[in-house]
Design a protein that fits this description.
By secondary structure, the protein is an alpha/beta fold. The chain contains 16 helices and 24 strands. A hairpin with a 2-residue loop joins strand 16 and strand 17. Belongs to the ABC transporter superfamily.
């Protein structure tokens, strides 16, 4: 609610629609935000930029009422307000579209939207409002469809529609294009520009700096929890914005150099698997061959079989035929994760918390879990914890992993720093085969460059690498060839220099059939194991 006292004077120009002044947020001895000032005006798209761990998420949560500041004030039209919870924020006209969808899979579109709407707005009235808003903004949805049956782009529409149905004055968007095809991203940009033209304010958080330069007229840059600058992104390059974020220039990713072909190391031979449950995606006649020194990129929209393909490669799902999966010529289809690791493979799953790392455990303990099957054993049958601590320190040093203390819990690291640790842990094992899913999802430009360079260098040493990614720019930067996964079928790989974003975008959207698809029904059921990929 608004307080009687007035806010600090605006930093220049008219009174902002929303402001944050002197924001400090401490978690024990750690200061996530340190004296942050931010002004957001009606009719603008304002970028909030910073490397992983810079304090963006903390500030965003304060503005949406998920956290209260230790010090400082938030203002609405010049009056100090207290945002005790998201309901208070929504009452003032603040809406938020989260990076990770907060949707209930088994509910319909309308039921998911009803969860945040007034109790009186249900049934036909709600369906009509969804249809009307969808027609106005080009965000068409079927209110009766269950969420589990929708593409990632359609799920993004639900998040935006239920935000807009609350008629927000300020819309906060966190990495909104991370799961969209190029065509879907263009459609989203048109919606955002219309919202701006209607006089709404938008706070746009993204590591895709070309998008920021296209959409935003002002940017506030955070580093180490503090504001280090503001600028007009249109007057900057992506590289200069990245340099402001990290404080130094971002290194160019060097191309890999491989001394000739090393022969086929990873082969999938007509792999067909049913969906691993009611809402998964069956894999249909998947065939791929990856040689030593080669990086194969696999593009696709989330929900088209990426998780299922990763599970089939890692051993979480086992193939009906042992020879359907071969590592260095050895049949691996019936083998689990540990046995595949012993064949020289390593795996980086998409979800770093819970799948790639156990959040309450220290980095050394996570290193111990991932290496116990392949490292030299003690007489007690376990890798020594001291050796695991040494490995964790090697990863921290080699990949610039930043955390509180020498051996922090995995869950205390920012997303980008935990991603660097997980990738580094696998790469420092010098695997002959690496499968990595969404290697730089949600990480800043410097961390992304470090991860991509490490993948290129590993391939340069003769490893076969499969990179599953929704970021086409990433695949064009590091992959030798790219295939598209759509509805569980994989297209024929095409050399990176012989295709385009537009061509891949069509395949990602289901326009054109993958050449390797046979349309045959799934064969025998997969045998799934419960162990996480660590």
């Amino acid at each position: 609610m608004a307080a009687a006292s007035a806010a600090p004077a605006p930093r220049g120009g008219p009174t902002p629609l929303f402001g944050a002044y002197g924001i400090v947020k401490r978690f024990g001895a750690f200061t996530a935000n340190d004296g942050v000032d931010l002004e957001i005006r009606a009719g603008e798209i304002h970028a909030l930029l910073g490397e992983n761990g810079a304090g963006k998420s903390t500030l965003m949560k304060i503005l949406y009422g998920l956290l209260e500041p230790t010090e400082g004030v938030v203002t609405h039209q010049g009056d100090i307000v207290r945002l005790a919870n998201p309901e208070a924020a929504r009452a003032l006209g603040i809406g938020m579209v989260f990076q990770h969808f907060s949707l209930c899979e088994n509910l319909t579109v309308a039921e998911n939207i009803a969860l945040v709407m007034p109790a009186a707005l249900t049934g036909r009235a709600l369906a009509e409002r969804i249809a009307r808003l969808g027609a106005d903004y080009g965000l068409h949805l079927d209110p009766a469809r269950p969420v589990w049956s929708l593409s990632a782009g359609e799920r993004q529409r639900i998040e935006i529609v239920r935000c807009l149905l609350q008629n927000p004055k300020l819309v906060i968007l966190d990495e909104p294009t991370s799961v969209l095809t190029p065509g879907e991203a263009e459609a989203l940009f048109a919606v955002l520009e219309r919202l701006r033209d209607e006089g709404r304010a938008l706070l746009y958080i993204s590591h895709r700096l070309d998008e920021v330069r296209r959409l935003c007229t002002r940017a506030t840059i955070l580093r180490g929890g503090r504001v280090v600058g503001t600028c007009d992104p249109r007057a900057e390059s992506a590289r200069s914005l990245a340099a402001m974020m990290v404080g130094t220039g971002v290194s160019e990713v060097r191309p890999k150099s491989v001394g000739g072909s090393r022969g086929e190391r990873l082969v999938l031979d007509r792999l067909t698997l049913p969906a691993p449950g009611l809402h998964g995606t069956p894999l249909r006649d998947i065939a791929l061959r990856v040689a030593g020194g080669e990086i194969l990129g696999i593009a696709g929209i989330a929900g088209n079989g990426q998780a299922e393909l990763f599970d089939a490669l890692s051993g979480e799902s086992r193939a009906p035929a042992a020879g359907a999966v071969r590592f260095d010529g050895r049949a691996a289809g019936h083998l689990g994760i540990n046995a595949r690791r012993r064949l020289g493979a390593a795996f980086v799953p998409e979800e770093r918390n819970g799948h790639a790392a156990v959040p309450p455990m220290n980095l050394s303990e996570n290193a111990l879990l991932s290496r116990h099957a392949t490292a030299p054993l003690t007489r007690f049958g376990l890798l020594r914890l001291g050796a695991a601590r040494a490995l964790a320190r090697r990863v921290v040093d080699a990949f610039d992993v930043r955390g509180a203390g020498p051996d922090p819990a995995a869950g205390t690291l920012s997303g980008g720093n935990l991603q660097k640790f997980v990738v580094g842990r696998e790469i420092l094992a010098e695997p002959g085969i690496l499968v990595i899913n969404q290697p730089t999802w949600g990480v800043d430009a410097a961390a992304a460059a470090r991860i991509r360079q490490a993948v290129l260098d590993l391939a340069g040493r003769g490893s076969a690498v499969v990179v599953i990614s929704q970021d086409l720019d990433e695949l064009f930067e590091i992959a030798d060839s790219i295939a598209v996964l759509h509805a569980g079928a994989l297209s024929r790989p095409v050399p990176t220099g012989a295709t385009s974003r537009a061509a891949l975008g069509l395949l990602m959207g289901g326009v054109g059939e993958p050449e390797t698809q046979t349309g045959e029904p799934p064969a025998a059921p997969a045998i799934r194991t419960a162990a996480p990929v660590l």
